[in-house]
Amino acid sequence: MKLNNHINIPELGLGVFQIPNEETAEIVKNGIINGYRLIDTAQIYGNEEGTGQGIKEGLHATNLPREELFITSKLWGSNLSYEETLQNFETSLEKLGLDYLDLYLIHWPGTDYGYQESWKAMEDLYKAGRVKAIGVSNFQKHHLERLFTYAQTLPAVNQIELHPKLAQKSLRHFLEKHNIKTQAWSPLMQGKLLDNEVIQKIAQKHNKSAAQIILRWHLEQGILLNVKSVKVERMRANRDVFDFSLDQEDMLLLDALDENLRVGPDPETFNF
Ligand SMILES: NC(=O)c1ccc[n+]([C@@H]2O[C@H](COP(=O)([O-])OP(=O)(O)OC[C@H]3O[C@@H](n4cnc5c(N)ncnc54)[C@H](OP(=O)(O)O)[C@@H]3O)[C@@H](O)[C@H]2O)c1
After folding, report:
1. Domain locations along the chain
2. 128 and 158 in contact (C-beta within 8 Å)?
3. Which pick of 39, 67, 84, 121 has the fewest CB atoms within 10 Å?
């Protein structure tokens, strides 16, 4: 898909949240070998070094150039100064062993709109070509409206918790209106949705797994996503979602599961 600055982004990425640093290299390498081109990490995951090592090994094993990959990391901390933001970015790049990032996100808005300096620093990183696109994560409508009052560069992406139990329709509509791509995190609700009866029935109908049905539900709606698995068979299955589609009846049944139910923190109250 194309972002609002015409950069291409893979629809489906491999997330590495909750993977210990020492295990990450092998998993990222396996992801790349098995066709993943987007890797999603973050400063707070503590595994940027492992991710970097995995990228190096994955590129070596596949003979791909760096440009074929799309690497995302995220800035931790609220009320960071301009300088601290630049420093954190450099530390992430160094740990990843890269000389540019594809996407850099402000990880959480915090509760006091304290991201203005960080956004300015990210805009300057973008202008300097250190990162191909910049964006936010876990931002609600009011967080973005505040950012619009001073931003010179608009976010390309808002990465948010999104799955059939938390469909985020109103926020998605707002993002679409402002030409910001929605990217889902915890698309499988961290595995908690996989034995849902409605999803199981649709899976049987298509001869697919519950996970594949959920990921297809995202893709049908133009939602970008990052899914995590440490297991090669699951990595492969999670990517194998481009040879079928859901019909209107399936989509209505899946849409009806929305309960505004979160598996992660609520951005309105989460502070760090
Ligand atoms: N921006 C943010 O604030 C934020 C927050 C959370 C996550 N994220 C990003 O989003 C990514 C994905 O979210 P997530 O890791 O929280 O959850 P997720 O991708 O919804 O679910 C991952 C869980 O589902 C299991 N799983 C994966 N594929 C499966 C399959 N085909 N069949 C059965 N089980 C399967 C995994 O187990 P195994 O690993 O054992 O296979 C793991 O326990 C993260 O890794 C991270 O990159 C961002």
Report:
1. 12-255
2. no
3. 67
Is the CB of 164 inside a 6 Å radius of any atom of ligand 1?
no
12-255 folds as TIM Barrel (3.20.20)
What tokens appear for 236 in the block?
A: 């492969």
Digit-coded pLDDT (tens) for 15-31 = 999 999 999 999 999 99
pLDDT tens digits along 34-55: 999 999 999 999 999 999 999 9
Nearest CA-CA partner of 214 in 236, 231, 233, 189: 189
What is the number of other CB atoms lying within 10 angstroms of the CB of residue 120? 16
**75-86: string of b/e by CB count within 10 Å (b at 16+)?**
bbbbebeeeebb
Tokens of 167: 């469909």
Helix (H) or strand (E) segment spanning residue 134: strand 131-137
Give the total residue count for the chain: 272
What's the 246 CA to ligand 1 centre distance in angstroms? 22
Q: CA-CA distance, 52 to 49, in Å (whole number)?
A: 5
Residue 231 makes CB contacts below 8 A (sequence gap 6+) with none
Residue 136 CA to residue 260 CA, distance in Å, equals 21
Q: What is the DSSP letter of 198?
A: H
- Substitution candidate for ligand 1 out of 41, 103, 194, 228 with most atoms within 8 A of CB: 228
Tell me the best of 16, 47, 158, 186 to mutate to test the pocket of ligand 1, counting ligand atoms within 8 Å of each CB and taking the most.
186
